Automatic annotation (TrEMBL), chain A:
Record-linked SUPFAM superfamilies: P-loop containing nucleoside triphosphate hydrolases
Residue ranges annotated for the ABC transporter domain, each copy included: 4-240
GO biological process: iron ion transport
Record-level GO cellular component terms: plasma membrane
Keyword terms, alphabetized: ATP-binding, Cell membrane, Ion transport, Iron, Iron transport, Membrane, Nucleotide-binding, Transport
Protein name as it appears in the record: ABC transporter ATP-binding protein
Source species taxonomy: Bacteria, Bacillati, Actinomycetota, Actinomycetes, Kitasatosporales
Organism: Streptomyces pacificus
Automatic annotation (TrEMBL), chain B:
Transmembrane feature ranges: 30-52, 84-101, 113-134, 140-158, 170-190, 217-236, 257-279, 299-317, 329-346
Organism field: Streptomyces pacificus
Subcellular location: Cell membrane
MF (Gene Ontology): transmembrane transporter activity
Protein's recorded name: Iron ABC transporter permease
Automatic annotation (TrEMBL), chain C:
MF annotations from Gene Ontology: transmembrane transporter activity
Gene Ontology, cellular component aspect: plasma membrane
Name of the protein this chain belongs to: Iron chelate uptake ABC transporter family permease subunit
InterPro entries: ABC_BtuC-like (IPR037294), ABC_transptr_permease_BtuC (IPR000522)
Membrane-related topology note: Multi-pass membrane protein
Gene3D superfamilies named in the record: ABC transporter involved in vitamin B12 uptake, BtuC
Amino acid sequence: MQRLTAESVTLAYDRRVIAEDLSVAIPDNSFTVIVGPNACGKSTLLRALSRMLKPSGGRVLLDGQTIQSLPARQVARTLGLLPQSSVAPDGITVGDLVARGRYPHQGLLRQWSQEDERIVGESMAATGVAGLADRCVDELSGGQRQRVWIAMALAQQTPLLLLDEPTTFLDIQHQLEILDLCAELHETQGRTLVAVLHDLNQAARYATHLIAMRGGRIAAEGAPGDVVTAGLVERVFGVRARVIDDPETGTPLVVPLARRGGASSAPRASASGAAAGVTAAAS
Amino acid sequence: MLVDSPPEQSADRTAAASAPEPVRRHALRAAGLLLAVGVLALVCVASIAIGAKPVPVSDVWHGLFQNSGTGSDVVIRDLRVPRTVLGLLVGVALGLSGAVMQALTRNPLAEPGLLGVNAGASAAVVTAISFFGVTSISGYVWFALLGAGVVSVVVYLLGGSRGATPVRLALAGTAATAALFGYVNAVQLLDSAALNRLRFWTVGSLASADPATIGKVAPFLAAGVVLALLIVRPLNAMEMGDDTARALGAHINRTRVLAMAAVTLLCGAATAACGPIVFIGLMVPHLVRAVTGPDMRWILPYAAVLAPVLLLGSDVVGRMVARPSELQVGVVTAFIGGPVFIHLVRRKRMAQL
Amino acid sequence: MKAVKAVEAVRAAKAIRTPGGLSVRVDPRAVLAVLLLLAVALGVAVVLVGSGDFPMAPGEVVATLLGDGTAAQEFIVHDVRLPRVLVALLVGAALAVGGALFQSIARNPLGSPDVLGFAQGSSVGALTVIVLFGGGSFATAGGAMAGGLATGAAVYLLAWKRGVHGYRLVLVGIGIAAMLAGAIHYLVTKADLVDATRAVLWMTGSLDGRDWSHFWPLLAVTAVLIPLSLAYGRPLRMLEMGDDAAYALGIRVERTRAVLTGSAVLLTAVATAAAGPIVFVALSAPQLARRLTRSPGPNVAASAVMGAALLVVADWVATSAFGDRRLPVGVVTGVLGGVYLLWLLVTERKAGRI
C-alpha cells in the first residue's frame, strides 16, 4: 500500500514541459531520496507530489484520491512540506513560528489547545531548538533557522513529510545534523520522508529508497545498495566513478575517477552507447 | 523569492551563440546608431512641421535657414524650434539618467520618474514658486537640482541601498513620490495663484519652451552628460556586482557618487525645464538593451539618441490626437510607458522580495 | 528540560480555554494596545465634536450625546459635527485595514493601497466627475468609488499569471499609479481654476461638510468587511511565510489572496469616496500598530483602531492648531507621512528590513 503516488503525470511551467508520463510511488514508512543532475525535474516532481504544482496531465494520488480534489486542510494534516524558500515574518520568535505549524489542526474557536502546546514543545525539542524558543528567527544562523522550519513542519504532525533540498546552503556539520534528524524521525516516529538531495553519497547513506532522475525520467529506483552503481552514476550524472562500500555504514560510496589524460573531458563518449535508452529520452 | 518559476533556469545563451565576430558586431551596432540618428532627424522635422498650424516640410527648411518673416517662419522660429530643441535635450537627459540608474542599482525598473527624483524636483520647484516667489527658470533650476539630489539619495537609502531589490526600490520611490505630490497638492491648495501656474508645469509639457529656458538648463545637462559618459566603464563593472567590480579594480563609492551626481544634474535640469515626465528613462534603456546587449559603452549613446525620438514622438502624437488643443507630452509618455512597464513586470522573473 | 522551557515560552502567548475543548488565543499586549487606542480615538473624537466656532466642553458633548443637551447643542452635535467625526473614525479604520491587508500580501511595509494606484484610480474617477461633468459631491463620491474599484480590478487582472504573487501585484500597481498620475495631471489642466481648486482640495483629502449621508454607506461596507478581514487574519499570517509554506499548511493561497485583495480594495475605495485619498494613514497605521502590539502579522484589529485614532487626531490638529485657518486633514497626514517615511528610513534600514 502506497499512500502517495503519481500516475503518468506531465509536469510543465507554462508551456515548458519538464517531465512527461512520469509515474512514481513513494513506499510507506520509507525515507525516500530523489537525486539527479541540475534541471532533471526532481524539485518539480516534489512540487507536484506536494500539490504546489498541478500536473498538466495525469494525477497525483494521496490515499487513493486525486490530491487536488481533497480539501486543503485535510491534505495539510496528512502531508507536510519544507519548501526551498520560506520567509520568516519580521520579528517573529522561534516559538511563534513553530506554533504556526499547528494551523491545519486549528479553527476559529479552537485556536490554541493544550495538545497544540504540547506538540509544539515536542517538535522544538526533537529538532534541538527548544532553547531558542524566545529568540527572533532573524537572529539565528542558517543551520538553526533550517531546524526551526523543520520543527514547524514537524508540528504539523503529518505522517508524510516532503523536504525540498533541506541541506542546501548549510555546512557539512549542519548537513549531517539535518539528515541525522530526518533519519531519526523516520526510524523512531515511523514517518514517511521524501527529500530532494544534491549529494549522491549522502543520499545513498541515508535513504531507504532512492529515486534517480535524469531529463524528466526515472533512471532507476530501489534500495541504494541495488541502485547506485558505476553505470548509473555515469548514465545519470555523466561522471565516471567507482562505487565502493562505505567503510562506516556499508552503503554505496561514489568515488569519481581521477583525471587521466583527456579522459575526463569527454566522459560521455561511452555513455551514449551504453545507456542509449535512458539518455536519448533525456536529451 | 519566486515560487512559481522553475527551480533551475537554463542560461540564455542564444545571444552568445548567434553573435558574429566582434568586428562585425561593432560595425552592425555603429550602423544601427547611425540609423537611429536618421530616425531622430526625421522626428525633429515632424516635430517642427506638425501642430495646430501644420507646416509643409519644404516650409520647414525655409523657416530654418531662410527666415523671411512669413507666418510659418515665425511659428517655426519662435515656437516649434525651441520646443523641438528642448525636447531633444530633455530626451537625452532622461534616457541617459534612466540607463545610468538601471546600471547603478542593478535594477531593471529603476527610472527617475518612478524613483521619485522628478517628484523631488517638482516639490522643490513648487516651494520656490510659492514660498520664495521665484518666477523664472533661472531661479528654480537650482531648486530643482537640490530637490532631485536629496530625493535620489533618500530613495536610494530607503530602498535598502545594497540589499535593494527591484520591488523595494520601486516601492521606496513610489512612496516618496506620493509624499512629495501630497505636499505639492497642499501647497497648491493654499495658494491658488501658484496652482494656476503649477498645474500646467506638473503635467510635464514642452509647450512653454523658449530659448531662454534652453540656455539656462543646457549647461547643467551638458555637465550631466559628460559625467555619465565618464563613468561608463566602472558602471559596466558594477553591473556584475559590487564585489566583482571591486575585484576588477573599479572604485565603487566614487562611481556611485558620480552616478548619483549625473542623475541629479540630468533629471533636475530636465524637470525644471518641462516638469516631471515619467517612463522615458525606463523604456528607452530596455529597448536599447535588446539591440546592444548589456555593454554600457553602447547603451548610453543609443539611449541618448532614442530617448529624444520617443519624447519628441510622444509630443507630436500629443499634438495630433487632441487638435486643436494638445495632450501634454507627460500624459502621452505615461500612457505609452505604463503598458510597457506592466509588460516588463509580467515577463521578467523579478526575483526576491 | 528543554522541552519544558519551550512549552513555557509558547505559553507566554495566552489562551482562554473552555472545558468543552474550545480555545481562543489572547495576546494580552495586543488587547491592551487595542483598548488604549480605542480610548484615544473616542476621547479625541469627543474633543473634536466639542471644538469649532461653537465650543463645547467634553462633558457637555457627552451629555448631549446622551440626550441631555440644549436644543442648540443637540443641533450642533447631531446634525453638524457628529457625522463628520464618525466619518473620520470609519475612514481612518477602513484605510488602515486596507493598508494592513496590502502590506501583508505584498510582504513589504511600503506596499499600501495609496502607493499602489488605488488612490490614483479613485482620484481619476472623482476628477472626471468634477472636471468633465461638473458633478456635485455625491456624483464625485460615486466617481471615486467606481474609479477605485476599476483600478483594483485592473491591477489584480494584470498581475494575474498563474496566480497573483505579492511582488507582481506591487509592481503592476506602481505602473498603473504612474499612468493614472498622468491622467490626473491632465484633468487638472483641463479644468477652469474653480474646478481645479475643487479637484486639488478633493485630492488632498478633507472631512469638511461630511454628513450622515456619507456615514451610512461607509458604515455598511466597514461593518461587513472589517470583521471579514479579522476572520481571514489567521490564514493571512500564514501567507506571510511564502506561498509554499502557506500551501503546505493547508491555506487556499489564491482564494485567501483574492478575498483579502478584494476587501482591501473595497475598503480603500469606500473610504476614499467618503473623504478623498487621505495619504499615509494606510501606510503608517499598520506599522505603528505592529510596533505597539509587538506581534508579527497583519494586526487587523489594532490597525483599525490605530487608523481611526490617527485620523481624528490629524483632523483635530488640522482644524485647531493653525488658528483661524482650518486646513484639510490630508495636509496634516501628508506631513506626518513624510516624517513617517524618514523614520522608517532610519529604523528599518538599520534592521535591513525594508
